[in-house]
Amino acid sequence: MQKSNVLVEALNMNGGDGPYSYAENSSYQRGAVETAEEIISRDIASKFDTKQLSSISPSPICIADFGCASGSNSLIAVHGIVEAIEAKLRSQGIDSKIIEFQVFFNDLVTNDFNMLLTSLPSERRYYAAAVPGSFHGILFPRTSLHFAYSSCALHWMSKLPDEVTDEGSPAWNNGRIFYIGAPNEVLEAYSSQFAKDMDSFLSARAHELVSGGLMALIVPAFPDGVLSLQTTNATEIQLLESCLVDMAKIGIVSEVEVDSFNLPAYYTSPKELKIVIEKNGDFTIERLETLKNPKRHIAMPNLRARTMFWRALIEGMIDKHFGEGVADELFNRYSTKAAQCSLFMSPERPSSVMLIAVLKRKDYLLGKK
Amino acid sequence: MQKSNVLVEALNMNGGDGPYSYAENSSYQRGAVETAEEIISRDIASKFDTKQLSSISPSPICIADFGCASGSNSLIAVHGIVEAIEAKLRSQGIDSKIIEFQVFFNDLVTNDFNMLLTSLPSERRYYAAAVPGSFHGILFPRTSLHFAYSSCALHWMSKLPDEVTDEGSPAWNNGRIFYIGAPNEVLEAYSSQFAKDMDSFLSARAHELVSGGLMALIVPAFPDGVLSLQTTNATEIQLLESCLVDMAKIGIVSEVEVDSFNLPAYYTSPKELKIVIEKNGDFTIERLETLKNPKRHIAMPNLRARTMFWRALIEGMIDKHFGEGVADELFNRYSTKAAQCSLFMSPERPSSVMLIAVLKRKDYLLGKK
Ligand SMILES: C[S@@+](CC[C@H](N)C(=O)[O-])C[C@H]1O[C@@H](n2cnc3c(N)ncnc32)[C@H](O)[C@@H]1O
Ligand SMILES: C[S@@+](CC[C@H](N)C(=O)[O-])C[C@H]1O[C@@H](n2cnc3c(N)ncnc32)[C@H](O)[C@@H]1O
Q1: Cα dihedral A192→A197→A198→A199 (10° resolution)
Q2: Collapsing DSSP states into helix, strand and coil, what is residue A314?
Q3: Distance between CA atoms of residues A111 and A116, nearest Å
Q4: Where does this protein have coiled-coil stretches (chains A, B) (predicted)?
Q5: Roughly what angle, to the nearest 10 degrees, separates helices A270-280 and A184-208?
Q6: pLDDT per residue over A214-259, tens digit each?
Q7: Is A28 in the pocket of ligand 1 (CB under 6 A)?
Q8: What is the rounded distance in angstroms from the CA atom of residue A329 to the CA atom of residue A195?
Q9: Helix or strand or coil: residue A243?
Q10: What are the Cα distances from residue A37, in Å, to A77, A80, B35, B61?
Q11: Residue with CA nearest ligand 1 atom 13
């Protein structure tokens, strides 16, 4: 297997609930999830199609969360979706009590599902199931879902674009770990991989959703017209990069290892996402906008919190690529450097945003498939 | 929470794939699973009802395994069931290729689902999902399953009967860890708990299965007319018991702890199981018989293998009840004692058997519900 794929297998978030776990370090995503909840509830009220439900022998309403990680944010989101659908049913005079819900939690097979399953509330309004596997492929039978959801997960790509680790390619990304600050060819390689992955995701969901089924996606992105290099994310990633380069200079890691290390993630933009969805053609866009001020659960996101945030995200990849122990050194260096860096986290600089897209599965007879 | 319930929460099999894991020590169950496979396939051919499947927009065929543990036997069983249903579909002129299968793997929430999910074959004919929770309750939406399966799991009870740990009761089971060799009241308490649990199991499955849906159960039991005390299982359990009593005498564990420790499991009999199923009333009995000569994967089940077998089964409970470390001592003592015990594993003595029951969900309009 290619090194690039090994990396992607390690991109699941840190499991468990220790200090570096995703569970303890996902308050930024939590903010987005909670801000989105209200919007999604409103869209369910106006757009969720109850015609699918036969009144004589009602089948369950099936909901899936794609890329749920080890849980807490996912449980909040799912709870909100179930409540909104119940409210919709009641508003239509349907006895919501006789309707059963089944919720499927998806993530990569390497995800800590034990943690997720043990944290399910024992009093809940739905039957729960965990579904392992990549959301870039089909994971459910056809027309078996009524609502699909995914939050802060679609920026992860299915693989690194081959070119960025190919010495012979103009998109070879040596000495960098991301496309920020890299030649245009690198950005293009990332962007076209993202488009392919998004298309696979949409086609797979189109197989699984009933016609008229809704899908809400929360996707990290850069705002239209903002150069990635101008963002605080750029500063953070370039700081990480420079720590790795320093570590290569004194031989803690090898230069070759740094050259072949690239983050398999991509920040799309509102415009780009729209094009990808329209090109795919299976869904109508009911909403596509930037989430306003996701509530941040840490009032002043401080340096320590941001360091932990990055660590929860990429420690798995660092371990897999450079071996165990490197992450400690890397993140120690990172927090020292970041503390000295005056530009760091300046509130005036643009940063990544969260897009919310609400899509509707086109009718099978009218849609392209 | 009562001590008795804490115990039941710990009854999941040892996870992982280490030397004491269930995965490495379940060849006896494996034998039963494989012997049953042929019978189940034949019953699917003659009794599986394909009327449920609409030919225009075929819904998936849903199968659930209740009490799957960490996996390997379950994967074999499920593979056999899917193949048999496909063959049945083909025999009816249905294009089996367009039919999708969804398989749900159920066990207690404390089960090692990570192990199960990572061992799923990547090339498989079905979508997979893990469903945590006790099979004594409803775990799926109504009429959402076509086939239910459970192997070597229904002998585990939902709780210890209260009486056996109640000093004031004639069924108080002090100085013993099971009903074998105990006063009749203890046996009765166990037997009535088993009947209640089996009834809950059947009612829950009746909710979940389509009418005409099949269910295959492999249940450990003693043959009709055999006194439990005469079996090799009795010898093994009484040996375990005597080791614990010895350990209490020299203070490694406390006497009170031994008095309150009881295995929450029960060996039913063909007659008793039949009565429980008929009393429940949701299913017709299509088959109920003793599995002939389950193939044993270890040709001569030796002492070491049997010790490991018991350890994989009850180590979790021993840890929970007596604390960590006690299991090592207990099983060392056990293998020393067992080696000296002449009666041990005599091939002439009766032993527990495996029953196979194939049940059919009665029609909703005709059945009691
Ligand atoms: C940052 S977490 C987001 C978790 C949660 N949805 C939230 O909003 O907090 C991203 C998750 O997506 C998962 N993920 C990434 N690529 C995936 C893929 N191809 N298929 C399924 N899950 C994937 C990762 O394993 C990780 O758990
Ligand atoms: C001996 S293992 C059998 C595993 C597998 N079916 C086989 O045949 O090898 C019994 C399994 O049943 C599970 N189990 C016991 N009580 C249960 C309950 N109430 N609900 C779900 N699973 C249960 C245990 O956790 C354990 O994994």
Answers
A1: 90
A2: helix
A3: 9
A4: none
A5: 50
A6: 999 999 999 998 888 888 888 888 899 999 999 999 999 999 999 8
A7: no
A8: 35
A9: helix
A10: 7, 6, 51, 33
A11: A67
Rounded-to-integer distance, Cα B153 and Cα B66, Å: 8
Interatomic CA distance for residues B192 and B212, integer angstroms: 29
The model's pLDDT over B165-197, given as tens digits with 9 standing for 90+, comes to: 999 999 999 889 999 989 999 999 999 999 999
User: How many angstroms separate the alpha carbon of residue B25 from the centre of ligand 2?
Assistant: 14
Are the C-beta atoms of residues B285 and B355 closer than 8 Å to each other? no
Q: Which of B312, B321, B330 is nearest to B152 (CA)?
A: B312
Distance between first and last Cα of chain B = 34
Q: Are A64 and A103 in contact (CB under 8 A)?
A: yes
CB count, 10 Å around CB of B340? 8
Mean pLDDT of chain B: 87
Please, are residues A354 and A152 in contact by the beta-carbon 8 Å criterion?
Answer: yes
Give the integer Cα–Cα distance in Å for B101 and B147.
11
Lowest mean pLDDT among A295-309, B205-219, B261-275, B317-331: A295-309
Residue A50 pLDDT > 70: yes
**Residue A318 — φ and ψ, nearest 5°?**
-60, -45
CB atoms closer than 10 angstroms to residue A369:
10
Q: Which chain B residues have a beta carbon less than 8 Å from that of A110?
A: 118
How large is the C-alpha radius of gyration of chain A?
21
Q: Is residue A173 a contact partner of residue A262, using CB atoms and an 8 Å limit?
A: yes
pLDDT top residue among B294 and B225: B225
Ligand 2: which of B8, B12, B193, B218 to mutate, most ligand atoms within 8 Å of CB? B12
Hunting for tokens 């249940």 — which residue is that? B219
The one-letter amino acid at B209? L
Residues with CB under 6 A from ligand 2: B 11-13, 26, 29, 33, 67-69, 73-74, 106-108, 111, 134-136, 151-153, 156, 158
Could you please report the per-residue DSSP string of B87-155? HHHHHTT--GGG--EEEEEEE-TTS-HHHHHHTS-SS-SEEEEEEES-TTS--S-TT-EEEEEEES-TT
Q: Is the dihedral of CA B163, B169, B175, B181 positive or negative?
A: negative
First-residue to last-residue Cα distance in chain A: 34
> Confidence band (pLDDT; 50, 70, 90) for B208?
very high
**Cβ A207 vs Cβ A289: under 8 Å:** no
> What is the rounded CA–CA span in Å between residue A51 and residue A41?
18
Q: Could you tell me the pLDDT band of residue A55, with boundaries at 50, 70 and 90?
A: very low
Q: Report the distance separating Cα B351 and Cα B230, nearest Å.
A: 8
Q: At residue A365, does pLDDT exceed 70?
A: no
Cα B333 from Cα B75, distance rounded (Å): 35
Q: What interface predicted TM-score (ipTM) does this complex get?
A: 0.86
Distance CA B25, CA B307 (A): 10
